[in-house]
Amino acid sequence: MSNPSKAVCVCARVCVCARVREREREREREREVYDTESSVGKMQQLGDSEPRRSRVLIVGSSGYMGKQLALASLREGHPTFLLLRPEAAARNPNKTQSFLSLRRAGARFLKASLDDFCSLVNTLKKVDVVVSAMAEDQLLEQLKLIKAMKEAGNIKRFLPSEYGMDADKFLDCPPPTGDVFVCKRKIRRSIEDAHIPFTYVSANCLAGWFLSGLGQMGRFMPPEENVMIYGDGNQKVIWVREEDVAAYAIKTIDDDRTTNKTVYIRPQLNILSQNEVVQLWEKIQGRTLKKQFIQEQSWVERLKESMSTEEKYVMGFFHLIFFQGKTYNIDIGEDALEASSIYPDHQYETVEEYLSLLSESSL
Fold it and tell me: Could you tell me which residues belong to the region Disordered (predicted)?
């Protein structure tokens, strides 16, 4: 018969060893990241010769671009924090799941409300850089963030929620499409008036929204038989994968060259017309699509018809992008900073590579 006392001792030793291992793992984690509660100001010891990594706060991390920005920050080795707004997360299970997936990837939470000025200021004092990815219907909420950053006085770089077309290049764009540019310009001027160091990131057409459906409005997988071509289909468009946008954006935050500048993401191999994109897809699939050409005048006339504000908003963007070529046909100046040129070490995904992943042969 076994000795009960001996079994208890063995169990006790196992528990002690487990606790010791857990403490060792916790100490290792503390050496690698900031402690968000009691020692958020202490940096990991990387060696005397290695530069200090900026502490990055992602606002809107549960959104479309926010998650990519958080992951890019983690990949670059930045202590990465997510602004957890309890009032928003508590009502949306998808947000909670997104927060948890980023938490497992190594991000930390910092709780604060945009409507609680004091808590927001205290939270901002724990980080160096703020990267916003707030949704378009929340853009003006960033004014609260700007006010708190000015009060905190320690933020060395702010990336407002942009990642599309350069708002300062579309002063005459009519509503409702132009409304988003008005909001973004208001945010930009508020940042500049507050003397907060910034970088504006212009990424043009996000692949998931535009390239995935070959530019078909409301479609996010390539069409099987028919494709709509805008105008003659020859206007150049700049297509960029979301992960690449995030990677370039995060690279700017510790780069003095990008302080108070707009960085344009214009990868040379991804500047293609809609016709060229369709031809690439046909080559990959080994079959030809039937083209339906839509004339600009008919598109403009349709914009005058009675329709939902949301539909008119989207159609307005398609008019700018595909009929007028306004992602490429704008003057950005000879001294403009272009991301793939200043960060040649980042291997961006080409349009052809992206489309190949959507092909039946790769499924």
Answer: 27-49
